[in-house]
Amino acid sequence: MTSDPAKTSLPVEEGLRQADATTPGRAHRDHDLLLLHDMLRIRRFEEKCAELYSAGKIRGFLHLYIGEEAIAVGAMQALGRDDAVVATYREHGHALARGIRADQLMAEMYGKREGCSGGRGGSMHVFDAHTRFYGGNAIVGGGLPVAVGLALADKMQQRPRVTACFFGDGAVAEGEFHESLNLAALWKLPVLFLCENNLYAMGTRLERAQSQTDLAAKARSYRIPAEAVDGMDVLAVESATRRAADAARRGEGPAFLECRTYRFRAHSMFDAELYRDKAEVEAWKPRDPITTFTSRLRERGEANDAILAALEASVADEIDLAVRFAEGGTWEPVEELLNDVYTPVEHPERAS
Ligand SMILES: Cc1ncc(C[n+]2csc(CCOP(=O)(O)OP(=O)(O)O)c2C)c(N)n1
Ligand SMILES: [Mg+2]
């Protein structure tokens, strides 16, 4: 097995991200490095966002995914180009893992016209038709009915697609969660419900708000196959999502994964974190999905110092370029602000 970083193939071009599969050993190593690379991109992108937020370059709300990267990266491997993704306001990682370009995402964070949502969405409303990325939803639980609708359309049109819907543990308290799971199960819709259980909904710990904290059990009550997965283990998330996606494509209906994870940062940039001990956060740090996966790759001989340095350098270059792109972007002129707010329709009486 080669350890030459130049021989790793890490596609970073626009579109969905897949490893080279020329030989099984090479494909395996490339795939693992791709997973690590994607997790690193998310981590470094968001660290830069936190810095830019403090500098006043990014404004509004900012919810970081740091610590949870293995879920978006692992799950995204099971999706193809025609599948759809729905996420929450903590969605920068999902957007990057899905293949939205870092420069377009950074421009969106800045609110610049070159952003993937034209600068209208910002951090919480990342959209991209090209990769079928349907947000970015600021409303807790708001993405679930959207995902069910997308899957219903696919089923009615007999398209062999799946819709992956990411949401937090806080969403299980919402009526939309229950309505969505019920209809998806009743109509056997191809939806993957990917619950990111990081134990907290803002400052509310799961057991303070839920009588049943086994979230997979809630899905099973709707007769949806459900399992809990180690959300800090990218390979575990990938294989569980692949199984669920394969079943959905065979027409077996929805699946639910409770991905157990932890956010290392505050809920948003305006959170003093008075609801949890620093010791608890520290106790989760050894399970950091990036450091644990890096160690695994080193043990398997798939990564070494040179490879890791090359990965970090390529990520740093990509993020530098993204910031430069966003800095050089343009603001939408004030007189255009009402564009796309209402559809211009011809009044029927005036038309005749
Ligand atoms: C319907 C609704 N209620 C309340 C809020 C305020 N709010 C924003 S984030 C959040 C916590 C959600 O937690 P969770 O679903 O676990 O996601 P996490 O932030 O942990 O990723 C709440 C209550 C909201 N955005 N939408
Ligand atoms: Mg949560």
> What would the average pLDDT be, to the nearest integer?
92
Number of domains: 1
What is the name of the CATH architecture? Answer: 3-Layer(aba) Sandwich
Oligomer: single chain
CATH class: Alpha Beta
Fill in the CATH topology: Rossmann fold
Would you tell me the structural class of the helices and strands? alpha/beta
Bound molecules: thiamine diphosphate, magnesium ion
Largest sheet: 5 strands, parallel
Q: Key terms for this structure?
A:
single chain; 352 residues; alpha/beta; Rossmann fold; 5-stranded parallel sheet; two-stranded antiparallel ribbon; 13 helices; 7 strands; 43% helix; 9% strand; globular; disordered N terminus; binds thiamine diphosphate; binds magnesium ion
Describe the structure.
With 352 residues, this protein is an alpha/beta fold. It has one domain: Rossmann fold, CATH 3.40.50. Helices cover 43% and strands 9% of the residues. Strands 1-2-3-7-6 form a 5-stranded parallel beta sheet, sandwiched between helices. A two-stranded antiparallel ribbon has the order 4-5. Strand 2, helix 6 and strand 3 form a beta-alpha-beta unit. It is globular and about 75 Å long. The structure holds thiamine diphosphate and magnesium ion.
